[in-house]
User: Fold this.
Amino acid sequence: MMKNCLLIRHAATAGNVCRRYTGRRTDEDITLEENARTRRVGEHVRGILQNPFVVSGPLQRCRRTSSLLCPSKNIQIIEELSEIDFGVFEGKTYEELKDLEEYRAWIGGELPAPRGGESRADFSERSIEGFYKALSLAGEGDELLITCCGGNIMAIMSFLTGKDYYGFQVDNLEGYILRFRQNDETICDLSYDRFGGGNNT
Assistant:
């Protein structure tokens, strides 16, 4: 049986609007202005997924988005689907960090993780674990909605496709629609399309 899964990034927070590194440590809600837009996107989601099993990352921004996208659904929380820990760079903008040698080393790939933060390798492993946990919770159902952070989507999509991590960046309330067969821990016959960014929203 083919499974349909929508991976969608949460609605925007104040930190997203200001282009701050908003990671695992910053548990802020979405902005009030995003409520109406999220409900509109929810109408489109419900046109694609008729009766999805709904999973959310643990941060407020993910839980609020899930509740607006599918207001009548119970939401299962998966702790592993929280954003990467940006360590000492958390809450800062590029402009605030660009002259720091430590920051330049990190974005240049010379430093595996920000001080006090999480490496991309560890974060990706955690995100993939969260994805498979969502599949396990959904069981035999053929529709799954996962609301999580942008980094989680990049990690999961890169793992599933073998393609570049940064090639899967999405804006808020965007993501990917996946279709695949699952045999135990194996994903087969994967295809996917971009969700959002055009007529979808």
The two ends are 28 Å apart (CA to CA).
